[in-house]
Amino acid sequence: MTPTLISTEETKTAQARPAAIPAVVEIKQKVKQDLRMGREYQQGRINWVTTIAMGLFHVGAIAALFFFSWTNLAAFAIMYFLAINVGIGVAYHRLLTHRGYRTPKWVEYFVTMCGCLALEGGPIFWVATHRVHHQNSDNEGDPHTPHDGTWWAHAGWILSGRAMHSETALLGRYAPDLTRDPVHVWLSKYHYVPLVASGVLQIIIGAALAGPGHYVIGALGMLLWGTFLRVTLGLHATWLVNSATHLWGKRRFETKDDSRNNWWVALLTGGEGWHNNHHAHPVSARHGLAWYEFDINYYCIWLLSKLGLAEKVQIAKFDKNNPKPAGI
Ligand SMILES: [Zn+2]
Ligand SMILES: [Zn+2]
Q1: How far is it, in rounded angstroms, from Cα 147 to Cα 257?
Q2: In a 3-state reduction of DSSP, which class is residue 261?
Q3: CA of 272 to the centre of ligand 2 (A)
Q4: Distance from the CA of 261 to the center of ligand 2, in angstroms?
Q5: Which ligand is nearest to the CA of 245?
Q6: Nearest to residue 83, comparing CAs of 267, 262, 237, 210?
Q7: Nearest-angstrom CA–CA distance, 56 and 140
Q8: Ligand 2 centre and the CA of 240: distance in Å?
Q9: Alpha-carbon gap, residue 43 to 271, rounded angstroms
Q10: Dihedral pair phi/psi, residue 311, rounded to 5°
Q11: Ligand nearest 137 Cα, by number?
Q12: Residue ranges of the alpha helices (H) in the chain?
């Protein structure tokens, strides 16, 4: 069932009114308003829960620098790859949002769990927000366009506004495919569970590897590198796709938005920085369209397909001499 934004109370009010048609128009306008996610619709509020959590993760990230070890660096690299490459790029973005390929359900759920490790909200929140971004890119209602300010596009939109993570019914209008699936609904509600579980695992492994007398330092060091520093840098890498790749880089395709191909954001995110390619061909599972446009996230999808775990992989075809966005 497609969720609706209209509460029972509002429906009753609408029914009680003699002039039904204006009431319906009013509700329709409210629905439209609620789905507008740009800066002017956030009423300048600050989401304190998110802001305090982000502050704590940044403090933890700085603290991590005093606990360097090669083991902790390895924990950082493994967790970053799982959360940002597999979780955000391969799962949330290319599979769940744009359906650029298909996988068996158990693979879809596993990679989605990896996405939860990035602390970017559950799949329904992420997918709905990103679909709104593609619908209104750099126009009114875009949740994070640099037209509303560079800081707003980077992190301001996360720190301000409504706590939409739990508004599943509202967001569900943009992700009905996910709201029909109880596993995605559960993961959206309890998106922090995989992160907490992985943190506990890091504490245990860190303590075990450190050995007697160094349990606390070992556990704390691995947690700070595998979770706090890793989450913080992963967030900024993802946010750069919203800020930097709508500001700086080359435009291969004349898309209606300001998206750009930015090599250093692509490096940090495993290929998500080829953002102009992506806005031109949103369904393509491959974002790096030239041989030199490295796209680690696509290589992961390619590997999945070779293992028989991914099919119907969509790959954009374009004429280098006459590049045109899809649908033109
Ligand atoms: Zn974009
Ligand atoms: Zn996208």
Answers
A1: 11
A2: strand
A3: 9
A4: 13
A5: 1
A6: 237
A7: 32
A8: 14
A9: 34
A10: -140, 170
A11: 1
A12: 8-16, 20-35, 48-64, 70-80, 105-116, 123-136, 150-151, 157-159, 168-172, 176-179, 182-189, 193-210, 215-223, 230-242, 263-269, 275-280, 296-306
Give Cα 32 to chain centroid, integer Å.
23
**Would residue 122 count as lying in a domain?**
yes
Helices then strands, counting H and E runs in the chain, come out as 17, 0
Residue range of the domain that includes 256? 61-306
In a domain, 274, yes or no: yes
Three-state SS at 287:
coil
Structure tokens at 327: 């649908």
Residue labelled with tokens 């996230």 = 297
Q: Which residue has the tokens 């068996």?
A: 104
Q: What is the mean pLDDT of residues 272-287?
A: 97
Kindly report which listed range (2-11, 45-54, 215-224, 232-241) carries the lowest average pLDDT score: 2-11
State the distance from the centre of ligand 1 to the C-alpha of 154, rounded, in angstroms: 12
Q: Is 145 inside a domain boundary? A: yes
Residue at 127 is within a domain? yes
Taking only the tens place, the pLDDT of each residue in 63-89 is 999 999 999 999 999 999 999 999 999
Report the domain count for the chain. Answer: 1
Distance between CA atoms of residues 262 and 249, nearest Å: 5
Ligand whose nearest atom lies closest to the CA of 246: 1
- Cβ atoms of residues 91 and 108 within 8 Å: yes
CA 219, distance to chain mean position in Å, is 29
Average pLDDT, the chain: 88
Between 260 and 46, the more confident residue is 260
